[in-house]
């Protein structure tokens, strides 16, 4: 699915990622943990193709394609989903409109027909019911006045509709209450499948109480300093990050 080799990036001439290597196979959930400022969000953004990050070395292969050569929208169409892709409020553009446009872009890329309005309505109604959302939600402006929990549900709804192969969730942790954590966890667990992979970025272990990852990696100073199974997250919760962190100039 995804092979990252010795990835190096800088932001405004400052090296951030200093040689990341990571292989994600279909069906796997990889948790990326680490102290604040270690480069977790940078890694998510570089994979999604956000501007402002300069790749200075290494390679990323996604399903046999050179990911770094692809524009952000090409990456999305090829099956990469970054939660908070649409963080901004888009007043006047309804949620249902954006969802349908995004789904049809993905379908065209796959060589499938576009869904017609009636089929789409049926599809989306089934999904929102499963997520415990009100139908009104579909007709509101994108993220307009959404509560934290609604934004989370909306992210999960986007994932459920778009059916990406690789979901990247950067749970920046700020303001994620226990209800929001459960929304994310239930959504991820429901979408787990042998064909779909997840990269879950989280500072705290608590999200992993609800989602059992296959692998846990610790990022510190732009490098993966330790990898292990789910038990590593528990160990980090107990001991903090100090014992795995290495000085940057190792
Ligand atoms: P994390 O998500 O692990 O907290 P980030 O990827 O957000 O870490 O940040 C890693 C480092 O890169 C930090 O030192 C941060 O200050 C720096 N950084 C991130 N984005 C920018 C930016 N746009 N401009 C300058 N420095 C940045
Ligand atoms: Mg941070
Ligand atoms: Mg971050």
From TrEMBL:
Highest taxon of source: Bacteria
UniProt KW keywords: ATP-binding, Nucleotide-binding
Domain (ABC transporter) ranges: 2-246
GO cellular component, one term: cytoplasm
Matching SMART domains: AAA
GO MF entries: ATP binding; ATP hydrolysis activity
InterPro entries according to UniProt: AAA+_ATPase (IPR003593), ABC_transporter-like_ATP-bd (IPR003439), ABC_transporter-like_CS (IPR017871), FeS-cluster_ATPase_SufC (IPR010230), P-loop_NTPase (IPR027417)
Cited Gene3D superfamilies: P-loop containing nucleotide triphosphate hydrolases
PROSITE patterns in UniProt: ABC_TRANSPORTER_1 (PS00211), ABC_TRANSPORTER_2 (PS50893)
A Pfam family per the record: ABC_tran
Family named by the database record: Belongs to the ABC transporter superfamily. Ycf16 family.
NCBIfam families listed in its UniProt record: PRK09580.1, sufC
PANTHER family: ABC TRANSPORTER I FAMILY MEMBER 6, CHLOROPLASTIC
Protein name (record): Fe-S cluster assembly ATP-binding protein
Organism lineage: Bacteria, Pseudomonadati, Pseudomonadota, Gammaproteobacteria, Methylococcales
